[in-house]
Design goal:
The protein is α/β, with parallel strands linked by helices. It has two domains: 224 residues, Response regulator (Rossmann fold), CATH 3.40.50.2300; 152 residues, Rossmann fold, CATH 3.40.50.2300. The longest helix has 21 residues. It has 14 helices and 14 strands. It has a seven-stranded mixed β-sheet with strand order 7-6-8-9-10-13-14, with helices on both faces. A five-stranded parallel β-sheet has the order 2-1-3-4-5, with helices on both faces. The protein has a two-stranded antiparallel ribbon with strand order 11-12. Helix 5 links the parallel strand 3 and strand 4. The N and C termini lie far apart (61 Å). The N terminus is likely disordered.
Length: 399
């Protein structure tokens, strides 16, 4: 469509095209970028949200195009990782054959671990949008860049803030139960928390792992009743998170706090809308936008106008694509090595995240940080840190 429009305007400008052959020259060659997410399978909701974020970013970048390449537009090669690492790797092979200049994706840690490795064989730049497992950026892969924080950073921030909240409340909470999904993300997060919490004086009573998908949490919640922890920490994807918390509500299990670290539903407007009672009061340490940046509200409106929810998947992938666009602009090239060099030297700061300028060290953006949110009055509010605070934290939920 845009190519045709471009052609008509150029033809209409026939006379000037003859006078200035460069102005009327061929349109800059599109830049092929792989957009890889699990849009089918167990993680389909999150994958579709990520894809939406990528498409909105490409829309914004293509308004002017990549100026250093004559206004070249990004041509998205949309691919489905089908919620499995193997399918993700197969798509990387296709991107390479299609001559992609870079890849953005692939949401889940286990998929990102596989796709970054596969892309490294071809020196194909891979910007990770979510994938929180730190192994992704700790293998010395020169092609891999993660804009957001990893789970170690998130777990440390979450535990330190839990301690601050608990201490301020007179230390009502001492025991913890962790419920996590079985893949790299959930297992890694649970392991980190199990190591961090005792140092702050908390007793981790039990750590329970569940499969993806899990359609029934009754037994786990019965176990929770028996253990009776002060704090429940879930680390799972959207469907399982929502079902776990609803099952707790049905069985009238009310810990002093549901305190999530990278909780799949805890800071999701969809969850708050669908299950207002079950979500009320939940605290989450997660990816979140800067609520003081007007552009956050503008992007949220655009997402909602498409009938979608403004979730972390959307704004993380949106920003990851903007980081890549900025790198291509500075590289002045579609060459993979040139784009990798531009990413390595990135100082990208034109974003809606609470991060400051981008600085990649071994592929990890060192300025990335999670925010703490809480569901209050059917809305999601930032409670920590104070620089971004929109509401005072409520802790514990029940005395």
């Amino acid at each position: 469509m845009s190519t045709r429009r471009h052609f008509i305007t150029q033809t209409a400008a026939g006379a000037s095209a003859l006078a200035f052959p460069l102005v009327g020259g061929a349109q800059a060659k599109p830049i092929k970028v792989g957009v890889l997410h699990p849009v089918t399978g167990a993680l389909a909701y999150s994958g579709q949200q990520c894809r939406l974020g990528a498409e909105l970013a490409i829309e914004d970048i293509n308004r002017t195009g990549i100026k250093s390449l004559g206004g070249a537009k990004i041509d998205a090669l949309l691919a489905d990782a089908q919620s499995t690492p193997q399918a993700g790797v197969a798509e990387i092979e296709k991107f390479n054959e299609a001559g992609a200049s870079a890849v953005v994706g692939a949401f889940a840690s286990a998929i990102c671990l596989a796709t970054t490795q596969a892309a490294a064989k071809y020196n194909l730049p891979h910007v990770v949008d979510v994938g929180v497992a730190d192994q992704i950026v700790e293998r010395g892969l020169k092609n891999t860049f993660r804009f957001g924080p990893g789970y170690r950073k998130c777990a440390e921030v979450a535990v330190a803030n839990l301690h601050v909240l608990n201490t301020a409340a007179g230390k009502p909470a001492r025991t913890v139960m962790i419920i996590h999904e079985e893949s790299l993300f959930g297992t890694g997060t649970a392991n980190l928390l199990s190591r961090e919490l005792p140092g702050y004086g908390y007793e981790v009573r039990e750590v329970i792992k569940h499969a993806n998908p899990t359609r029934d949490f009754n037994n786990i919640v019965l176990r929770m009743k028996a253990v009776n922890p002060d704090i429940v920490i879930p680390a799972n994807y959207y469907n399982e998170y929502a079902l776990l918390v609803r099952t707790m509500q049905q069985q009238k299990v009310t810990p002093k706090a549901i305190y999530s670290v990278l909780g799949g539903a805890a800071s999701q407007y969809k969850f708050v809308k669908e299950f207002p009672d079950a979500s009320n009061g939940i605290i989450d340490c997660n990816h979140w936008f800067n609520p003081r940046d007007k552009r956050s509200a503008d992007l949220k409106k655009r997402v909602e106008a498409k009938g979608a929810f403004f979730s972390y998947e959307v704004f993380m992938t949106y920003t990851a694509m903007r980081v890549l666009g900025d790198a291509i602009e500075r590289a002045k090239s579609t060459d993979r090595a040139a784009i990798i060099a531009a990413l390595e030297s990135s100082t990208f700061a034109d974003h809606i995240m609470p991060y400051g300028p981008t600085k990649f060290v071994n592929g990890q953006n060192t300025g990335a940080q999670p925010l703490m949110t809480q569901v209050q009055k059917n809305d999601i509010k930032v409670i920590i840190p104070r620089d971004y605070r929109e509401a005072e934290p409520i802790f514990p939920l029940k005395a």
